[in-house]
Amino acid sequence: MQHDGLPPSAAPMPDAGDVEARVAAETMVVDLGAYEGPLDVLLALSRTRKVDLREISILELAEQYLAFVEEAKRLRLELAADYLVMAAWLAFLKSKLLLPPEPEDEGPSGEDMAAHLAFQLQRLEAMRNAAGRLMARDRLGRHFFARGMTETVTQNRKVTYSATLLELMQAYARVKTRADYEPLHVNRGEVYTMEQALERLQHIIGDFVEWSTLAAYLPPGLRDTAAGRRTATAATFAASLELAKRGRVELWQDDYDTPLKMRVKPAS
Amino acid sequence: MSAVDPDQDVSSLFEAPPLAEQERMIEAMLFATETPMTLKQMAARMPHGSDPAEAMVHLRKRYEGRGVHVAKVGEGFAIRTAPDLGFLMSRDVKDERKLSRAAIETLAIIAYHQPVTRADIEEIRGVSVSRGTLDLLLELEWVRLGRRLMKPGRPVTFVTTQGFLDHFGLESARDLPGIKELRAAGLLDNRTAPGAALGEAEDGAEDDAEQEDQHSTQDEMF
Amino acid sequence: MSAVDPDQDVSSLFEAPPLAEQERMIEAMLFATETPMTLKQMAARMPHGSDPAEAMVHLRKRYEGRGVHVAKVGEGFAIRTAPDLGFLMSRDVKDERKLSRAAIETLAIIAYHQPVTRADIEEIRGVSVSRGTLDLLLELEWVRLGRRLMKPGRPVTFVTTQGFLDHFGLESARDLPGIKELRAAGLLDNRTAPGAALGEAEDGAEDDAEQEDQHSTQDEMF
User: Fold this and answer.
1) How far is CA C24 from CA B67, C29, C30, C43, C69, in A?
2) B28, B21 Cβ separation under 8 angstroms
3) pLDDT digits (tens, 9 = 90+) for C181-203
4) Strand pairing partners for A159?
5) What is the mean pLDDT of chain A?
6) Which residue did the predictor score with more confidence, B26 or B187?
7) Distance between CA atoms of A143 and C166, rounded to whole angstroms?
8) B to C CB pairs, distance under 8 Å
9) Given CA atoms C26, C30, C33, C38 in this order, what sign does their dihedral have?
10) Which residues 6+ apart lie within 8 Å of B145 measured at CB?
11) Phi–psi pair at A185, nearest 5 degrees
12) Alpha carbon of A218: minimum distance to chain C alpha carbons (Å)
C-alpha cells in the first residue's frame, strides 16, 4: 500500500489538504447518527476524496478519521466505543507507517495492516453496490407476479400445520429464558395466593385447548409436597372461577365427585 | 401506471399496441389476478386504444387444448385448469393452520434436546404436556419415538425426523443456533434482561446501545 | 413416489402418457401454484413413467416471449408474468415493509458470501448485527440456516433460500449481479486481519458444550 511521502520525523502540518479534510470531517460530524460504525465513516471519508479506493492513501485517510474524531470531541458529541477503538488503531497504524520498522518488531507490518483496511473498505463498498443492484432488480410482487388464483379443488381435504424456523427458534428462546425472568412461585413462602394463580393461569391458559384437570394447571414447583399442592389447588381453583366469570375459560365436571376440568374458552 | 416508460405514453397518443402485444398483456393480467376480470377492467389498465375483446379471442384460441384454458366466468374471464387434469391438483388442497404455542415450544425442546422424554419436556417448559400436543407432532411426522432410556421406568424418548428438517429448511438439527448464538445474532429480545440498560453513552449511536445490551446480558446469562 | 394409487399402477404397466400430454400436465400444475415446484414434485403427481424434464424443455420454449414465462428458481420452476408488463399490475402491489440499510446490506453479504457466519457479517460491515436484522430476513424467508462450520466454535451459518431467488428473479445464487467480477477481484475472499484471528472462535464456545451433547446423540439418529 502506498502512502504519502512525509518524512518519518515530520509532524503533520496544517497544510491545504488538512484543512480540506477538516472541512469535510466537520460536515460529516453533523449527521453522526447516520453512520453505521467506524468502517462506514471511513468509507464515507474516502468518498470525499473522489479517488478510486484501490489508490487511496490509508495514511491520509487515517489522519482524516482522527481529525473527524477530534472534531466530534470538540463539538462534545459522544462517540461510541467502536469509533474510539478505531481511532486508537489508526493512530497506531499511522505510527507504524511513519516510523521505520524495528527489526525485532513482531506482528504484521504497517503496510499489511493498511492493505487489509483498504481491502475492508473495498469489500464494504462492493457489498453496498451489490445490495443496490440486488434491490434494483425486477422483484416478485412488484415487477413480476405469481399466479393470483391458485387452485382450490375441494377434495382430499388435508389439514396441514405451518410453523417457520424463526418461530421455532423464538419458541425455544422463550422457554429457555422464561425461567430467568419469571419469579419462582415456590420461593415465595408457604402460601400461593389467588393473585399469583391468576397471573400464572392468564399466562398459560392459551396452551390448554383441551379439557385438563385442575392438577395440570398447578405450578410444577408446588406439585411435589402435600402442603404445596393444597395451597396451589385452592388458589388455582379460586382463580379459575374468576377467569370463568371473565369468560376466559370454561369449567366442567362430569359428576359432583369427579375432578374439575378447565380449558381455554374456544374462540368462536 | 406510474412505471410506464415515456415512449410508450407518447406512442399511445397515436396508436394502440399491436394485437400480439395486447394478447400478452391480457395473458399476464389474467394470470396474476385473484378474481376473474372483465374486458372493461382489462381495458382500463391497458394503453389507450387497446381492444381486449379482440385480443381475448386470440388468447382463448391459443389455450385451446392446453393444460389450462381461459374460461368465461359471468362477465369476466379467468384461467382455469383443464377439467381432465383436475386429478393433478387434488393434493394441492390444504387447510393450513398455525401450530399452537404449546406445540411449537414442545417441538423446539425436542429439536434442541433430543432424545428427550416427556418428563424432560415438562421440566423445561414448566407445564405439563398434553397428550394432544405430542400426538399432533407425531402425526405431522416432525417427531417420532426414539430409543427408550436405560433408566428406571425405561421412559420413551422423542426425536425429530427428516420431515422436520425438510419443513424448516435445515440440513441437520445441529445447525440450530444455541441460546447464546440466538442472542448474539440479535434474534433474541435481550432488552428484558435486568441491568442491561446501564450503558454509559447516551448519544444517538444506536449500534452502541445494542452492543452494550449484548455484552451485559451475555455475561449474566452464561 | 410411495403413494401411487392402484389405478395408476395398472396404467403404468402399459406406458407413460405421450409427451404432449405430459407437457399439459406440468403446465396445469405450474399454473395452479404460487411457489416453485421441482421436477421431482411434479413427477410424484404424474402417472408412472412420466419424464417432466423433457416436457419442461418444450413448455419453456412454448412460453418464450409471451405474457407469462416459465422461470427457473433454484431447483424449481414457476410461471411468472413478464417483467416488462409489471405496469399493468402495479395497482396490485402490496405495501412492503421498508427494509433498513442494515438489512439490505446484510442480505447482500449473505447472498454473495454464503455460507456466512454472524462474525463474517460483522467483519464485513464493521458493526455488530443488530436485533431486527436477521429476524426480518428469516421472517421473509429469504434467509435460512446453513451447516455449522467445521472450525472452532462450530459457528452457525446463514444462506439464502429459494424464496430469495424467486423474489429477485434469480435462477441460482451464481446469477447474482456482478458476482463473477467480485470474485475475480478477490472481494469475496474470506481474508482476515493480518496477524489477528479476532475472537471469532470465542463466540459460541460456550454453546459448544451444549452442542456437543447433541452431536453424540444426533449422529446416531440421522
Assistant:
1) 4, 9, 10, 13, 15
2) no
3) 999 999 998 777 776 544 443 34
4) B95
5) 76
6) B26
7) 12
8) 166
9) positive
10) B138, B156, B157, B158, B159
11) -60, -35
12) 30
Task: Please state, in angstroms and as integers, the Cα–Cα distance from residue A123 to each residue in A135, A157, B4, B216, following that order.
Answer: 18, 51, 36, 31
C-alpha cell at A7: 518524512
Considering only the beta carbons, identify the residue of A83, A155, A161 that sits closest to B90: A155
Cβ burial, residue C22 (10 Å; 0-12/13-18/19+): buried
Q: Provide the H-helix boundaries in chain C.
A: 6-12, 19-32, 39-45, 52-62, 86-89, 101-113, 118-125, 133-139, 162-167, 179-184, 205-221
Retrieve residue C95's grid coordinates.
Answer: 405495501
Chain C residues within an 8 Å CB radius of B92 = 32-33
Of A178, A208, A228, nearest to B126 by C-alpha is A178
Length of chain A: 268
User: What's the gap between Cα B154 and its chain centre?
Assistant: 40
Query: Is B29's pLDDT higher than 70?
Result: yes
Q: Which of A69-73, A90-94, B71-75, C96-100 has the lowest mean pLDDT?
A: C96-100
Separation CA A91–CA C35 (nearest Å):
54
All residues of chain A having their beta carbon less than 8 Å from the beta carbon of residue B121 are none
* E strand or H helix at C143: strand C143-145
Question: What is this model's ipTM?
Answer: 0.67
**pLDDT for A4 beyond 60:** no
pLDDT in tens, A135-180: 888 888 888 888 887 764 444 445 667 788 888 888 888 888 776 5
Residue positions counted in chain C: 222
Of A137, B66, A263, B222, nearest in space to C111 by CA: A137
Give one DSSP letter per residue of A204-267, joined into a string. Answer: HGGG--S-EEGGGGS-GGGSSSHHHHHHHHHHHHHHHHHHHHTTSEEEEESSTTSPEEEEEPPP
B130: left (phi over 0), alpha (psi -120 to 50) or beta: beta
For the record, the C-alpha cell of B87 comes out as 386429478
How close does chain B come to C201, measured CA to CA in Å? 12
Q: Report the interhelical angle of B131-139 vs B101-113 (nearest 10°).
A: 70
Of residues C127 and A15, the one with the higher pLDDT is C127
Segment B173-209, tens digit of pLDDT? 888 888 888 888 887 764 433 333 333 233 333 333 3
Distance CA A87, CA A82 (A): 9
Q: Over the stretch B104-113, which tens digit does the pLDDT of each residue have?
A: 999 999 999 9
* Nearest CB to B99; choose among A33, A146, A161: A161
User: Would you give the DSSP letter of residue B55?
Assistant: H
Cβ separation A153–B188 shorter than 8 A: no
CA distance C184 to A62: 28
- Chain C: list its partners (3+ Cβ pairs within 8 Å): A, B
- pLDDT of amino acid A220: 76
Q: Are β-strands B143-145 and B157-160 bridged in parallel, bridged antiparallel, or unpaired?
A: antiparallel
Q: Which of C195, C140, C184 is nearest to C162 (CA)?
A: C140
Phi-psi category of B119—alpha, beta or left, where left has phi over 0 and alpha has psi -120 to 50? alpha
Task: Reply yes or no on whether the pLDDT at B77 is more than 90.
Answer: yes
- Is the CB of B203 less than 8 angstroms away from the CB of A80? yes
Read off the pLDDT band of C20 (50, 70, 90): very high
List B40's β-bridge partners, or say none: none
